[in-house]
Design brief:
The chain is an alpha/beta fold. It has helices spanning 47-57, 72-83, 129-137, 151-166, 177-182, 184-192, 201-208, 213-222, 261-274, 279-294, 306-315, 322-333, and strands spanning 11-14, 18-24, 40-45, 62-69, 91-94, 100-106, 112-117, 140-144, 170-174, 196-200, 228-231, 237-241, 244-248.
Length: 340
């Protein structure tokens, strides 16, 4: 078997950093009803932090750009990220707002409902000297649609895109549901300016108006968006491989909390792109990562590592040609090192 893949070159992640307060409840409450849980859990979360932490689990060197408040939650978030190897030198702290915070209600079917505020995430930028130096050498970047919700973070996102392209690199964009609802035109414009566009079927339906995933996928391609990866949840994902639209099958696990599953999917696909994997292998690995993430409560530092994802792949049996792809992915991953 092959050795585990070596550490790859650095990727810049720009996105939200939140404190996630998670509660598991038996049922969704009626309006006005008191709803108690046996315990609350505090985790590092937010699409930017989740993606950065998941990339670190793949051995990828990550620099995270974002903003947290000058409060105890901001300190907790920075400490949690740094302890897991994420470079947080480029994360600002601000007194203008509290750190972003979400309360996440999780029901027994694994569905989650969010309540909260982006808080300090809206105060990203302007760039300082150290951030400018980082952009001078960045050759890969991962952006989230949430950065386009306000003018300051949008300006930073566009600077990142321009700088990485000047360096001959590539940029990905993960749409996000709230941006897709509120600013669909901006999301589509941004998607045309990047090299890889992640979108869920619901987000794609929102920005294109097409109800069927395949129609929405074709609609995005027809708009001139080069590389689209559409997340379908329990149905896997859609990719365009050699100009042919292919549905990549899902891998099954017992879902207990879907928080962060999409971010784990994105990070797995990105690490595969950094290592020049074929898109079919990247997509199947991403499906496995999303399934593994849905099998644990919480995201952030709880997101699964390679060992858990390999376990999902080994347990699966797919129809060919996808089972051959699954075996090739396992061959690339190689044996799991102790504690991996």
């Amino acid at each position: 078997m092959r050795k585990p893949p070596p550490k790859s070159s650095k990727i810049l992640v720009l996105g939200d950093i939140n404190a996630d307060i998670i509660a598991r409840v038996k049922t969704w409450p009626e309006p006005g009803q008191e709803c108690l849980t046996e315990r609350l859990e505090l985790h590092c979360g937010g699409v930017g932090a989740n993606c950065a932490l998941a990339l670190r689990r793949w051995g990828v060197s990550v620099a995270l750009m974002g903003c947290v408040g000058e409060d105890v939650f901001g300190g907790f978030l920075l400490q949690t990220l740094a302890a897991r190897g994420v470079n947080v030198r480029f994360v600002r702290r601000t007194a203008n707002a509290m750190s972003g915070m979400l309360y996440i209600n999780v029901t027994p079917d694994g569905q989650r409902t969010f309540f909260g505020s982006r808080g300090a995430n809206q105060w990203v930028g302007p760039f300082g000297r150290s951030q400018s130096r980082l952009l001078e050498r960045a050759r890969a970047a991962s952006l989230m649609g949430y950065s386009f919700l306000n003018a300051g973070s949008e300006a930073v996102a566009r600077q990142v895109i321009a700088a990485v392209h000047r360096n001959g690199g590539w940029v990905s964009l993960d749409a996000g549901m709230e941006p897709s609802r509120k600013i669909p035109e901006k999301i589509l414009k941004a998607a045309k300016s990047v090299d890889l566009f992640f979108v869920t079927d619901e987000e794609a339906r929102t920005v294109t108006g097409h109800r069927k995933p395949e129609k929405a996928f074709d609609g995005l391609l027809n708009l001139g968006i080069a590389n689209v990866v559409m997340k379908l949840g329990k149905q896997g994902c859609l990719i365009a491989d050699d100009r042919t639209v292919r549905q990549v099958p899902a891998l099954r696990t017992r879902a207990v909390d879907s928080t962060g599953a999409g971010d784990a999917f994105t990070a797995a696909f990105l690490q595969a792109r950094l290592r020049s994997w074929p898109s079919a292998e990247a997509a199947l690995l991403a499906n496995a990562a999303g399934a593994a993430a849905a099998s644990v409560v919480g995201a952030g530092e709880r997101l699964p590592g390679r060992q858990q994802i390999v376990r999902v792949l080994r347990a699966a049996r797919l129809r060919n040609p996808w089972d051959d792809v699954r075996l090739r992915v396992l061959g690339r991953l190689g044996p799991e090192p102790p504690g991996g």
